[in-house]
Design brief:
Length: 64
C-alpha cells in the first residue's frame, strides 16, 4: 500500500493554510483595480492633460 510521503503531507498542509490568504489578497487587489477604473471613468473630461481624460464612450458606461 502506498502512503503519502512526509514531504507531500507537509506541502499539502502548507498549501491549505496559504490558499485562503492568497485568495483574500487577490480579492483585495481586484477591489483596488475596480476602484481605480471607476475613479478614472468618473474623472471630468477637463482633467489636466487631454491624454488622461477618459474617452466619452468609456465615461458613459456604468461603473463596474
Amino acid at each position: 500500500m502506498n502512503r503519502p510521503s512526509t514531504t507531500h503531507l507537509l506541502h499539502t498542509a502548507l498549501l491549505s493554510c496559504a490558499l485562503p490568504w492568497a485568495g483574500a489578497a487577490w480579492a483585495q487587489n481586484d477591489a483596488r483595480v475596480v476602484a481605480g477604473i471607476n475613479a478614472y471613468r468618473a474623472a471630468p473630461a477637463s482633467c489636466p492633460g487631454v491624454h488622461l481624460a477618459p474617452a466619452p464612450a468609456l465615461a458613459a458606461q456604468a461603473a463596474l
